[in-house]
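Hey Z.,

So I finally got round to the heme C thing we talked about over coffee. Here's the setup:
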Amino acid sequence: MKNGWITRNRIIAAMAGGAFVFIVGGAWLLIYAGAYNIAADAPHTGPVYWLLNNVRERSVAVRSAGIEVPADLRDPKRIAAGAGLYNEMCSGCHLAPGMERTEISQGLYPRAPEFSRGTDLTPQQEFWTIKHGIKMTGMAAWGPTHNDTLIWDMVAFLQKLPALTPAQYKTIVKSAPEDHDDMMRDMPGMKQPDDGDHH
Ligand code: HEC
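And the result:
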């Protein structure tokens, strides 16, 4: 009786082990054979898209949940500063009101969302994504080169962006308080505007 029980457990363990080796081996063979097309001009298969989408959404939602939003996100100065940064660093991929689609925006996969059409991200999720970036997408982490204040300025601007006409967009970008180099002055590791390298 007891022996039979042990034998049955052994058989189950051997079958589970066999299945594991089969799945891992099969997956490795598919990878090694280059079966999956990693090209940016060939859309993901349905299951891979579903998986990556869920991984991204849950990862961002969980990691951004505790972030505290500054109270002054509606401050026009913040919005103007964010507009200057956005126009310079983000519009090439995410576009802007009145802007033609750029070459890079047409070749990216996944596509960079057009923020002038609005987004369902919370300000916390936007902040986290801008600061940390998203692996294997072209969305860079801006945290290594920009402090939290500047990143919140961009988030402040993103709240405003969907409501802007092309003319309003131009005006608000022109009203950016300082140029990029000036805004970056306080960042460690950045070239100082007055260190002689500036032309
Ligand atoms: C080189 C192109 C590129 C540049 C430049 C870029 N992004 Fe992105 N960004 C992307 C791509 C591509 C995605 C989509 C990633 C995905 O779907 O997983 C993205 C996603 C995002 C998201 C998340 C959107 C969502 O709905 O999940 C935010 C927020 C964002 N970018 C903000 C910015 C800001 C702000 C800047 C400028 C500081 C910027 N990006 C610069 C390519 C870019």
